[in-house]
Structure to design on (117 residues):
């Protein structure tokens, strides 16, 4: 079965991300600096620092996904973001994983709709 991607209205991403962080069982902050590597690596930036970069970034992407089973993981929610620093040379990522029991809570509160195929 395919993963389900949701659309979040602009302006709610940060509020939703902080709420998800409080409920997440897994949090990961990474960076991609292609002058050093073509693979993401753990960053020294904190969650809050990356969110502040997101607020100012001209390139940013937010996701809220219902992930189906795979890669040894049970069905769960994945949410997070990707953004680029002001210089445009480093991308930062935040990944959060939440228990499936929070799906209706988030889709209802933030009126999330699925992407149409």
């Amino acid at each position: 079965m395919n993963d389900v991607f949701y659309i979040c209205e602009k302006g709610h991403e940060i509020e939703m991300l902080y709420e998800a962080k409080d409920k997440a069982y897994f949090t990961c902050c990474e960076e991609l600096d292609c002058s050093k590597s073509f693979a993401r690596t753990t960053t020294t930036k904190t969650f809050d620092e990356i969110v502040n970069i997101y607020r100012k970034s001209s390139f940013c992407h937010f996701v809220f996904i219902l992930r189906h089973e795979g890669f040894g993981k049970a069905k769960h929610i994945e949410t997070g973001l990707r953004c680029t620093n002001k210089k445009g040379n480093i991308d930062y990522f935040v990944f959060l994983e939440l228990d499936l029991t929070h799906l209706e809570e988030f889709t209802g509160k933030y009126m999330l709709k699925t992407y149409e195929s």
